[in-house]
Amino acid sequence: MTKKHLGWAAVVMLMVAAYAAPVFAHSWSEAEFANRPLYAYPLPSGRDDIIGTLTTYKIQKGDTLLDVGRWFGLSAKEISDANGHMDWWLPPVGRVVILPTAHILPDSPRSGIILNVPEMRLYYYFPSPAYARHRKGKLTATAYHGARVVYTFPVGLGRFDWKTPLGMWRVTAKIKNPIWVMPEDIYQEHLERDGEADRVVPAGPDNPLGLFKLDLSIPEYGLHGTNVPWGIGMTVSHGCVRLFPEDIERLYSKTPVGTPGEFVYQPVKFGWRGDSLYVEVHDDLYGKYPGLWRLASRDVQHENLAGKVDLSKLEKAVELKAGIPTYVGFGPAPADGAMPDTTEADATAPDTAVSSAADSSSPDSSSLARSAEASPMMSAPVAPSVMTAPARPPTMTAPTMPPTRTAPAAASEDDAPDDGPGADWQSSR
After folding, report:
1. Residue 138's domain spans which residues?
2. Helix (H/G/I), strand (E/B), else coil: 66
3. Is the dihedral of CA 64, 65, 69, 72 positive or negative?
4. Residue 17 domain-assigned?
């Protein structure tokens, strides 16, 4: 073939590729996830217990619930549970899904780090109580005026046979680029399974602890990153708490040594927004209770909610275990209190928000932001408007998710990693 013909062939191939590009599935990059927005929810006042608002999202070609969830600060399991246990890997293209970006706060002190095990979600009340380190290494509490905002992150937890323990603890050290020294029982398990195992895993991208780790006062347990992000929302660890790489980096930067925390177990949570009562129900992850209906009924009595709960609505919420705040008061749901209707009619709703997305995105508005339109908390049962995201998210553009204020990210000198001898050699789960 002559050079002239080769030139024309190249031009034709480039034109075909340009026209075909939109039909190929897009992909998500680690750089995009690393720069996704972090939201600080203002702490509810009075008896209110609910943060955030539900959002909806239209599934695009090539999406998985793992990627969509990670971009919106959720796990694939949370989205799947909220949408009738949708397939994680092959969600229906064009389907409008609920993003469970509203949460009832756990029934616990609003201070430090609270992790609700059945929910597989961590809440960090910021700022946390502060501590000063003296020359002898002792931590002493300093003045504390209470948390102003709450951050929340999905997590991965211990397997059923390596349950994440419950109880109170404190952050005892901060480790960057940890080296993992396998505890003996985990080492033996790896030997039996694989026939060989390394006792020490060096710091780096293949380290199961990720790049950041918060040691806890519970021996051998910690909060850390992961080299397998899809494990968030799953029970796959040996008891430690795993976070998305970008989430642990942010938590690490904002958490001083001495921060108090607690692992709680609350598969059923009741909460108020104004005068409206809601319930949020999750799987009994470790089979702790004989039945969630029995637990919910007991909580109604324990929290003096008898006469305020429509038991038929509560029974349905317990049956669904959708993991989203659901109105259970008497009478019709308030205007901001009904679960959005995401039936097939919604999935074919016209895309009326694309042009506005281009106008409101970052300077790189030629590639529209992947985002979802914030609908009111459990908006009235009509088809919610949906923002379609035809392109991957620009690096620094925040989706129009929950309206929030961002707390300062600066860390004090007391937040520095523990650089004592052997601080980065971690025997951990």
Report:
1. 23-429
2. helix
3. positive
4. no
